[in-house]
Amino acid sequence: MSLEQIATQLESENSRDRMIALASLRDFSPSEAFPLIKKVLNDEVLQIRSMAVFALGIKPTEESFDILVKLLETDPDYGIRADAAGALGYLEDPRAFEPLVRAFYEDTEWLVRFSAAVSLGNLKDIRAKEALISALKGDEVVLHQAAIAALGEIKALDAVPEMLNFVSSPDWLVRQRLAEALGHLPSEQSISALKYLVKDSHPQVHQAAALSLQRLETES
User: Fold this and answer.
1) What is the pTM (predicted TM-score) of this model?
2) What keywords tag this UniProt record (predicted)?
3) CA neighbours closer than 13 Å in the CB half-sphere of residue 120
4) How far apart are CA 111 and CA 20, in angstroms?
5) Around Cβ 156, how many Cβ atoms within 10 Å?
6) Is residue 192 part of a domain?
7) Which residue from 65, 105, 61, 112 is spatially nearest to 88, judged by alpha carbons?
8) 10 in a domain, yes or no?
9) Which residues contact 111 (CB under 8 A, 6 or more apart)?
10) Count: domains in the chain
11) Listed residue (96, 67, 97, 72) closest to 84, CA to CA
12) What is the DSSP string of 123-170?
């Protein structure tokens, strides 16, 4: 479809037509796509809004950052706030650090906090270490997964002792994220933990541990 056809279809009363039109913008540049993405940011269908927010992260313009921060901080739907947090991570804009940390600490919905933690890892900003370590002290397993992965992304080497508290987590995804993260954190403790995790009963855990162990032993 041409941009003109997409613009027309975005006005359709049929939500499926609008969804297809929005997906078709992937073939256009951010500057071409952005005005049309904006048209459906307040669509009555939540799935279309979610797609539009995601599109702002992968088709960024100068305006994308401010729009996403506003959505993260004020949208009444927690799913949209989570989408905005995720899209800010795609931007990899260092300005996103402060709003993401605020969302992580202040939002009451676990999905928003999860998305904020993942995006803090995408920013690769070591300042996120304190917030991410705090997630390890809570009871939400999905936040353990996100925080451990993000600590690996930001290469928070001094967080390894806190991370190793999860080497025997009952949740295999936590153990897998730990095995992957330790591959970015070269230390004797990391290697020792990976030698333990490589014997894990879950195939995805021991595969991740084997790859990380190989990486660390090659680099040492």
Assistant:
1) 0.91
2) Antenna complex, Phycobilisome
3) 34
4) 26
5) 22
6) no
7) 65
8) yes
9) 78, 79, 82
10) 1
11) 72
12) HT-GGGHHHHHHHHTSS-HHHHHHHHHHHHHTT-GGGHHHHGGGTT-S
Within-domain flag for 128: no
**Cα atoms in the 13 Å half-sphere on the side-chain side of 12:** 16
State the Cα–Cα distance between residues 3 and 209, nearest whole angstrom. 47
- Tokens 């009444």 -> residue: 76
Distance CA 166, CA 183 (A): 15
Model pLDDT for residues 16-41, shown as the tens digit of each residue: 999 999 999 998 999 999 999 999 99
Give Cβ neighbours of residue 137 (< 8 Å, ≥ 6 apart). none
What crossing angle do the helices spanning 46-58 and 30-39 adopt, rounded to 10°?
160
- CATH number of the domain where residue 33 is located: 1.25.10
CA 39 to chain centroid: 25
By the 8 A CB rule, do 81 and 109 touch? Answer: yes
Domain residue limits at 32: 1-61
Which structure tokens are listed for 170? 């009952």
At residue 220, the pLDDT reads 65
The residues, any chain, with a CB within 8 Å of residue 124's CB and separated by 6 or more, are: 153, 154, 155
Amino acid (one-letter) located at 104: F
Give me the residue label for tokens 């995790």. 197
Q: Is residue 56 part of a domain?
A: yes
Spans of the chain, pLDDT less than 70: 220
Angle at the Cα of 207 (from 201 to 213), degrees rounded to 5?
110
